[in-house]
């Protein structure tokens, strides 16, 4: 039995992104559905997959049009209160070969509407690999549904087959959920934050910084309680895109609604956060004074270093961070990162190169490699970050850091080290 | 509309059933999908995923793999895994993707066997059928492929078919053995639950087979026909609270819903009542009573209850969502393939 495959940061940095070892390239091997990676392997399974994300529009309902297997795990979302908002049109084997079900979708929409006490804001039609392969024209199907029911209808493409395409399912669904916005007069003191289906963490400094330059109203999908609030998003003078998966949605809003956007990145290196705010200020034509937040973040990192100088980390990818950027940040702060379980992409290969200079021996694993069945945790690791890293290192201090409220900016640094401090102190306390 | 679910979510599909049977067999199992089906199996329908390790993988198909029908790539990836993981055989489980592109699963079998040197079984599940269909197919193929007639009957040995978490709500064979041992002795093997492929190979050592769910019946009939091993049909693992509550009923009109052999076993425990048994899953005519029903959809369930004048329903409480107007007594009878709840969760 082969031991779990890994490559060191130094070895990986010597290669180019186009020359990744097969074990780090998910198209070259079977995919291990490790308990640690179910988020990846089932886009509809946990967190905000396509199904849940499609219901981010207030007052929406969803009709999943698929074989039973595609909707099975939706039962998990019942626990989150979605049971009244999901409907299913089950396909049989003749359906998936002939596509005959397509003509039944408008009638199914009409029937589900009869079940509801109030008219939904939109019916999301969620389709799967079957329609990806059949090439179903969902725009046309949506129009047919609207003609019959008079209720807005939009597609939600749960095309797992296209996960590595230019516009993957989570990019497409972001485009879909903003597609119902209609043009209206923009207001110079309003903006929107895009990228996540839930809101930013309440104490994120971004709110105050935008407020300091005269922004009175910040629209976020995750804070919209009603469809009317959702519609207000198109009053934004500009959008801040905090997750690249929302780029296509922002581009669409720019062309349809005339709302320009600025992309920001979630980072954990304080100096880079400072630079990013400086650049944002320049783009908006006003200086953003982040000194208070910068100083607080620096203090928190230093305090953590004083409390846990010998912490050695394992970092996963089921978390609210880029695994490699976070590893680089921790390394720059003077900590050791022994292991990363992550997916190397074109965007984060640059972090691998920098990491190789500071921490050449850091081991990089792919969660998806079948060899991870044989993974044995490194004994020297003292803290795990990410739900997957916690799975692998179940007996040490760990934080999932994958909460629904999204961390950003200096606040993400503050939250990270605060949670780590608590977890490590608790573990150290219980060991005494 | 028959196939529209307005209150319920889908029940366990055939690919989950096939994987459930194969889970502890010691092979490399590949779900021929893009990732979502494997996520559904591992993250929801296979409760052993977090307690027992199994070489269960997703083929990780991408659109061009499907469009171009890259079977060779699938087999290449399978052989790579076989070099990394100790495997006794390989299995490929179908999903909607190979069904839409009409993948020749027999050809996959032959290509895989040639490349890996290991026996391969490829199962034509497509995610549109229910779990019992996939279980039945997997059991039958396993026994057809692997049983060796070199072994002689061992006195007192009993093999159990249908012992999966989806049927029984149990993660191990302990309770099944405990319930069957007074009648069948202590040498009991539950195929696929705390037992692997070696027990399948040595199935001829069984003096008798006990089938505890309809999904095991086809394999039992095969073993009977080919190796002359007799079989009994018997339900087991009825939730204890439900059983106690059912025993107290008297003079009531009762509807029981689960897999057929469980509802039949529960019916035997209820006296002085008019009992109708229903199942969403395979209903074998030979074990069905006159008023028993095979439920084909949500509307049929609602109609059955609306017109049935039942005083009591014994079924997974998951179904209550569709039966909100039912005002009688409800006794919860968990079924993992329905709600994803184990007996221990109740």
Shape of chain A: globular
- Largest beta-sheet characterization of chain A: 6 strands, mixed
Question: Numbering strands along the chain, what is their spatial order in the largest sheet of chain B?
Answer: 12-11-10-13-14
| Helix residue percentage of chain A | 40-55%
Low-confidence stretches of chain B: none
Query: What separation lies between the terminal Cα atoms of chain A?
Result: 38 Å
* Oligomer description: heterodimer
Q: Please tally the β strands of chain A and state the result.
A: 15
Total E-strand runs of chain B = 14
Give start-end ranges of low-pLDDT stretches of chain A: 41-45
Query: Per DSSP, what share of the residues of chain A sits in E-state strands of 2 or more residues?
Result: 5-15%
Taken in chain order, the helices and strands of chain B follow as EHEHEHHEHHEHEHHEHEHEHEHEEHEEH
Distance between the termini of chain B: 33 Å
Mean pLDDT of chain A: 93
Number of helices of chain A: 19
CATH class label of the largest domain in chain B: Alpha Beta
* Strand order of the biggest β-sheet of chain A: 1-13-12-11-14-15
How do the helices and strands line up, and which of them pair or pack?
The complex is a heterodimer of chains A (432) and B (346).
Chain A: E1 6-8, H1 9-14, E2 31-32, H2 38-41, H3 50-54, E3 61-66, H4 68-71, H5 75-78, E4 86-90, H6 93-98, H7 105-115, E5 123-127, H8 129-134, H9 138-149, E6 153-157, H10 169-178, E7 190-194, H11 205-212, E8 217-220, H12 227-231, E9 238-241, H13 247-257, E10 261-263, H14 270-284, H15 291-307, E11 312-315, H16 323-332, E12 336-341, H17 349-358, E13 363-365, E14 383-385, H18 387-392, E15 397-399, H19 409-431
Parallel strand pairs in A: 3-4, 3-5, 5-6, 7-8, 7-9, 9-10, 11-12, 11-14, 12-13, 14-15
Antiparallel strand pairs in A: 1-13
Helix pairs in contact in A: 7-9, 10-13, 15-19, 16-17
Chain B: E1 4-5, H1 14-22, E2 28-31, H2 36-45, E3 56-58, H3 63-68, H4 71-84, E4 90-93, H5 96-100, H6 105-116, E5 120-123, H7 131-146, E6 158-161, H8 165-168, H9 174-184, E7 188-190, H10 197-201, E8 208-211, H11 217-227, E9 231-233, H12 240-247, E10 253-257, H13 260-269, E11 274-279, E12 293-294, H14 298-308, E13 312-315, E14 329-332, H15 336-339
Parallel strand pairs in B: 2-3, 2-4, 4-5, 6-7, 6-8, 8-9, 10-11, 10-13, 11-12, 13-14
Helix pairs in contact in B: 1-2, 1-7, 4-6, 7-11
